[in-house]
Amino acid sequence: MSRQPIGVFDSGVGGLTVVAALEHHLPDEAILYLGDTARLPYGTKSPTTVRRYTERNVEFLVQRGVKAVVVACNTASALALEDLHLPLPTWGVIEPGARVAAAVSKRRVGVIATESTVASNAYPQALARIRPELEVISQPCPLFVPLVEEGWHADPVAEEVARRYLAPLLAAGIDTLVLGCTHYPLLAPVIRKVVGPGVALVDSAESVARTVAAALEHAGLARRDGRPEHHFCVTDAAERFGRIAHLILGDEVERLELVEVA
Fold it and tell me: How far apart are the first and last CA of the chain?
């Protein structure tokens, strides 16, 4: 079973930041990625819709024979993860990110995420379980995902949008900022420029990759024979996905398949 791939699911290209982090921490592992590009963004969808999409996409990965599943979408992690009852290891991105934020924050944590993730209150609840004395201020950033999906994460318009979204958090005096969507690490240089060096950035993609690496090692499921082959599936816009994937991963995406997920 250790040779089977790790399944990673996201609404679009954002989950590729999780793939990049997994490649760093688990270089011998094969990855099967599913980006539901036909139905993004998830962050503006109702909880019922997000749960339905998540169930179907995870079923797709399981049917393809993955040994574990990473729900790389923060919105899906917030709204649908607890409803998934899979016979294999499954992780979302919220708990790992919350643990890191709780460890580094002095007092006040800012969370930027999609509208649905913010409305779910998932990050404040997770942080409260770890350090109830922390103050958490959340800010929805609905324009960030389409900016990344269009490849505009380094465009001047991204910086202007970031300044507007982050102004209330900076005014509140945050010392830590959780990038509560896996698209957002692609905006990290812009966000860092806006918030300055005094605010710690927490990348949920990096956090979950470390969690997965430790868990697979502990369960005896880690692969050690190297030369893994990754397979990428999308439900729409394969050409654009491949272009952005090249920017994120640094290599051409050779195995890219257009699929239909009912």
Answer: 27
